[in-house]
Write a structure and sequence with these properties.
Elements lengths: L1 H16 L21 E7 L10 H15 L3 E7 L1 H11 L3 E4 L11 E7 L3 E10 L19 E9 L5 E8 L5 H19 L5 E6 L7 H6 L4 E2 H4 E4 L19 E5 L4 E8 L2 E2 L2 E2 L5 E7 L1
Parallel strand pairs: 1-2, 7-8, 10-12
Antiparallel strand pairs: 1-15, 2-4, 3-4, 5-6, 6-7, 8-11, 9-11, 12-15, 13-14
Helix pairs in contact: 1-2, 2-3
């Protein structure tokens, strides 16, 4: 049965790849209403490669449809290969600008990119650190880290109101919790530096750790989990593995914010279109007021 589902999903993906469904016709259900004075933040691990559950080109149309309809002020993507950056930049370029840095020089390298509404916000500053003992050194990593991991950040100023916030996006090691704790400590140092500039900070990412784990608890030492601040909040897993992981109940992807931030809504973006998941991860959406 699982093989049949994989084959069905792959065929469905091919239909999207060859343009049989236009992205603008793909309606996403249950999108929360956003108030005018809130900032919408989205996080998505987009899955770096093709597999039996969907090609990048096919799923990118679903991701595009979701992003267009959620219409975040800024969003972070993880596992963003150059192919993904090119697709998203081409499809969203009329509305969004992108800040990205590949984590190493390999042909399969990934970015933890941040996209933002370019007509609404002015980019005041940006950068990338490597989550290692030498954060400024390209492709550096902790010894036990499976690969180099990064955090990319953007400081954005609302052109109309002058409101400023910083969006940090990251993706932690997927093997060892002890490495994730090391990486979080480096990330916290950068976040504290950014907070010291007087602007609120939001951090999105695939943290590969669960609520209550050491890395999660370390992260809560500098920022707060929007899930537990929100007036309206979902509760569930974010790594769904294309529906093969439905017994999981807890997230490994998070949106964290500075103290003093109000959160209207925390939403898990777990919709399917037809038989097809947008990614092996669900996305996240948080509407915040700084």
């Amino acid at each position: 049965m699982a093989i049949i589902k994989q084959i069905t999903a792959f065929i469905f993906s091919l239909l999207f790849t060859f343009g049989m469904h236009a992205p603008e016709s793909l309606e996403i259900a249950n999108i929360p209403q956003k108030s005018e004075d809130s900032v919408r933040i989205v996080s998505f691990n987009v899955r770096c490669k093709d597999d039996l559950y969907g090609s990048v080109k096919g799923r990118s149309q679903l991701i595009y449809a979701a992003l267009s309809q959620y219409h975040p002020d800024s969003f972070g993507v993880q596992e963003a290969t150059q192919e993904w950056i090119d697709i998203l930049t081409e499809s969203l370029g009329d509305e969004y600008a992108c800040v990205s840095q590949m984590r190493d020089g390999s042909g399969s390298s990934e970015a933890s990119a941040v996209f933002y509404l370019k007509d609404k916000y002015e980019l005041k500053d940006s950068g990338t650190i490597w989550l290692s003992d030498t954060p400024e050194e390209f492709a550096s990593k902790f010894t036990l880290s499976f690969c180099p991991r990064i955090a990319t950040w953007t400081t954005l100023e609302n052109k109309e109101t002058g409101e400023v916030y910083t969006h940090v996006n990251t993706h932690l090691d997927h093997v060892f919790e002890c490495v994730r704790v090391q990486q979080i400590n480096v990330l916290k140092g950068k976040i504290e530096e950014l907070k010291a500039q007087g602007n609120p900070v939001v951090c999105t990412g695939d943290f590969n750790t669960k609520e209550g784990a050491d890395a999660y608890n370390e992260m809560k030492g500098c920022l707060l989990d929007t899930k537990y601040l929100a007036k309206t909040s979902d509760d569930g897993a974010t790594f769904l593995n294309y529906g093969q992981n439905l017994l999981e109940t807890k997230p490994i992807d998070f949106i964290f914010v500075s103290e003093g931030t109000e959160v209207d809504t925390y939403k898990i973006i777990d919709e399917k279109i037809g038989d097809m998941y947008l990614s092996d991860h669900a996305g996240l959406c948080a509407d915040v007021k700084f």
